[in-house]
Amino acid sequence: MLYYPEVMIEPVNYICERIEALNPIHSKKLRKSMEFFDDKYNELAGAFFEKYIQLLHAENKTLDYAIDCYLKMIADVNAETLEFLRTGKYSSSTFDEVNARVYASPETMAYYMHGLILSQFLWKHHYQVFDYFINTLPQYINTTKSYLEVGVGHGLYLSKSLEILDDEASFTVVDISETSITLAKHFTNNSRIAFNLRDIFDFDNEEKFDFITLGEVLEHVEDPLKLLSKLNSLLSENGTLFFTTPTNAPAIDHIYLFNNVEEIRKIVRQAGFQIIGERAFLSEEVSPEKAEKYKIAVLYAAFIKKADV
Ligand SMILES: C[S@@+](CC[C@H](N)C(=O)[O-])C[C@H]1O[C@@H](n2cnc3c(N)ncnc32)[C@H](O)[C@@H]1O
Fold it and tell me: What's the pTM value of the predicted model, to 2 decimals?
């Protein structure tokens, strides 16, 4: 019997039941997301969990392992949120700090990335961003001969791009964490992808890319304007960059605090881009004004291209 009748996917029901037993306070939040999910969600989540559970089994892991990872990530977010509300700042301010604490720690990275990939199908705003991406990407099939993803993490966005874009397109990945590269390699299982274990600031390529994806990385660097400018230099003349970044979202690896969406738009323009399409998804059921006032996370996503000169 399905415990959460709104969601017809068995693994999601199992996850929700386990979380209700292990963290009843958090499970109340999940219930709200479940109410939002529809038939399309059931289709996407069904396909995702089929693939993801296979990956877990191939690594001798179970869905319980992934749930445990997710709950560790939630504990981190809760601790970071308490500090953030007290100080008004993210707990880390330098890349070196975060690199030592997170990216260079295989244990932390593993639970973080498995937790994050589950959140894509458990949190309404994470699912909404993913849905926005996969609904819009087909517009770029004809113009994308080369695709770059920076900060691939678990590899979910990359796997969808491989499905959607042309079979002839080339795929390149840059990520600073060995754990992310390994997980994304296993999740996508595709020999067409060139993986680069590197800091994006140390990456160069002779050919420019037609499409670049940068999911939740901008807030991980000390100078997001420098990162967007770097990506502008890697983008082809008519290329498109899709990026996501949150406002007011404390996490163990977030450095740069965006207080509101306008601050993000400002650096987009400063880096020589114009916005083609954008969305802002609220993490709680509040108005955008209340989110800014009470420092509640908003996940911003945009398709941008080089500004006309
Ligand atoms: C929060 S995860 C995002 C995962 C995925 N893109 C998403 O949207 O859910 C951030 C990823 O960016 C990578 N990363 C952070 N700083 C980076 C840098 N300077 N260069 C390359 N990768 C970086 C991390 O290793 C991690 O895999």
Answer: 0.96
